[in-house]
Amino acid sequence: MRYITLITFALLGLSNASKSALFEQYHTQRQTAGFRNFTEINQQPVIGVISQSLETEMKGDSRFQGYGSYVMQAYVDWVEAAGARVVPLIRGEDPEVTKRKLKGLNGVLMPGGDGDYHDYGRLVLDIVKEMNDNGTYLPIWGTCAGQHELLSYVSSAGWDVLDVYDMDSASLTIEFPYGDPSNFAMFAGMGPDAWLLTEYNVTYNSHHWSLDPYKFQIDRGLMAFFKPTSISRMPDGRKFVASMETTGLNAYYPFYGTQFHPEKAANIFNPTQAVNHQWESVLLNGYFADFFVQECRKNPQRYGNYSETQKDIIQNHKLIVSTEWFDNVYVFEGSSAYRLMVSVGLAMAAFAMLI
Length: 355
Hints:
Elements: H1 5-12, H2 16-32, E1 46-50, E2 52-53, H3 56-59, E3 67-72, H4 73-80, E4 85-89, H5 95-102, E5 107-110, H6 118-133, E6 140-143, H7 145-154, E7 163-172, H8 185-188, E8 203-210, H9 215-218, H10 220-225, E9 226-233, E10 239-246, E11 255-258, H11 279-296, H12 306-310, E12 319-320, E13 329-333, H13 336-354
Parallel strand pairs: 1-4, 1-5, 5-6, 6-11
Antiparallel strand pairs: 2-3, 3-13, 7-8, 9-10, 10-11, 12-13
């Protein structure tokens, strides 16, 4: 966990007396936050990151030939910086392989991107929900498209619950209209520093879809499973859900989501993306990795011994360095079904050219 109260002191320009008072307040809040009762069951967490289908830009790059899905390196680096290792959950792999992995993993990350993993993500969610129902504490974190998938899985309207919120690239503030952030599991550990997110543009957004907060008042599926914990605004003032966590009778599921990308600040340096790289931004965004991995440390499962885990970690797969928006990515061969589909598609295209 990164202790960043000094950032608050520096940015607010407080007197020594005020700093002392704020520190006492911060200390009290941390003692009452979820971290106080945290029991570290697992000191070597392993997290599964879901792969998604190739982006359009990848299909025209010969380096991606023969591969069917990918994971951005930024997500891997993000959780590894918080003390976890990564095993890929590969779209198209045998469901029994995925189930075997999940029985050893300590958490799941559903990433952002423009690729597809809708059906595979639902399979993963169903397995993880069942494991939690049976007493295994197994967290899920969804970022951007990952949050969209989680919303669509539980919404009464399915994917149609989402609306178009086109935002190419921007770092924004968030707002807490639903109460003090210390009352939400995903923000409680930040203490007063959570309020810095309302003052400084440190949450990076790039999305086509998002969720109108009003949907939580009219969609029975949504309101029964998730609650919004913060919002952001489009340039035209429209509100969208910036973060969420489970609620009510489903609060025992440790599932969280953000529309923004906390993995970008420390890992993405493409000048075409408006990522805030200030030290404060890096630390504040890093908090969310710390929180998620700390949640994963509550899970008792063991993926295997060191040698067994090393065989499955994501570094066994090819890394392609890119200057495209997705940056560096790990790639995975398509399943036999996927390869057959591609072969049939190519054959049909060749036949069409002959007639």
